[in-house]
Specification:
By secondary structure, the chain is α/β, with parallel strands linked by helices. It has ten helices and eight strands. It has a five-stranded parallel beta sheet with strand order 3-2-1-4-5, sandwiched between helices. Strands 6-7-8 form a three-stranded antiparallel beta sheet. The radius of gyration is 19 Å and the shape is globular. Bound molecules: pantoate. The site of pantoate has 10 residues, from strand 1 and helix 6.
């Protein structure tokens, strides 16, 4: 009798909430660089939206998402219903490290990272990927997930993918679709302000708190409602010290649309 060892193929997962654009497709291409199967998940996760947020109106374009994925580098789409993902009340949830998860996005959107970590852990357990790809646009989310993977010793490598921008520099985001034509023109000010901050830091400006305040003021003067512009060290987003690798993160509301962006300095 011969015994055989079954070798399962490697799996790379690209978790998304659908309404796919070139940013998502670039994540799929990063996943394709790995050997094995590429799985994209499409699931608008109710757990990461506060009651006043845009869960109900979040764009759902599943048929088009399937077409985009079928024409590209994806082998399999996992698009569960809410009932499939949460067949019973999700009473056990992942609470990210407070130091990382309660600031910036976590301070403005309490519970957001609990919802993100919980669904991502569930996706990991269902799809069983060897690698998963997350974009740097959601920089804090990327760090929160890397921290969860480390803390729970999950056997998954997290791949960091660069932000994809439009020709004018605006980071691609499903929420850009909420912008009116004039807001879309204005939206480029967010990456411009972040670039300005990066330039000031690089040119030796050492009062970083002042640089952050000035950047938020510029946005405010143009009619934005900034939540934060923050210069942080890159690995755990702590307050930075001289000599560390830095990132500037920004989030601001333009009309009723909240945009976030980040730039490594
Ligand atoms: O970044 C997103 O699209 C979502 O937060 C994610 C990671 C798919 C979890 O729902």
């Amino acid at each position: 009798m011969r015994s055989s060892l079954v070798k399962y193929p490697d799996i790379s997962l690209v978790p998304t909430m659908g309404n796919l654009h070139e940013g998502h497709l670039s994540l799929v291409r990063r996943a394709r660089e790995r050997p094995g199967i590429v799985v994209a998940s499409v699931f608008v996760n109710p757990l990461q939206f506060a009651p006043h947020e845009d869960f109900a109106t979040y764009p759902r374009t599943l048929e088009r998402d399937f077409e985009l994925l079928a024409g590209g580098d994806c082998d399999l789409v996992f698009a569960p219903s809410a009932r499939e993902m949460y067949p019973e009340e999700q009473s056990v949830k992942v609470h990210p490290a407070k130091a990382l998860g309660d600031m910036l996005e976590g301070a403005v959107r309490p519970g957001f990272f609990i919802g993100v970590c919980t669904v991502v852990l569930k996706l990991f357990n269902i799809v069983r990927p060897n690698t998963a790809v997350f974009g740097k646009k959601d920089y804090q989310q990327l760090r929160v997930i890397q921290n969860m993977v480390r803390q729970f010793s999950l056997p998954i490598e997290i791949i960091e993918a660069e932000t994809i921008r439009g020709a004018d520099g605006l980071a691609l985001s499903s929420r850009n679709g909420y912008l009116s034509a004039s807001e879309r023109n204005e939206a480029v000010q967010l990456p411009l302000v972040l670039r300005q901050v990066a330039g000031e830091v690089q040119s030796g400006h050492d009062n970083w708190a002042q640089v952050e305040r000035n950047a938020a003021d510029v946005l405010r003067a143009r009619g934005w409602q900034p939540d934060y512009v923050a210069i942080r060290e890159r690995s755990a987003l702590r307050m930075p010290a001289a000599g560390q690798s830095l990132v500037v993160l920004g989030a601001a509301r333009l009309g009723t649309t909240r945009l976030i962006d980040s730039l490594e300095i």
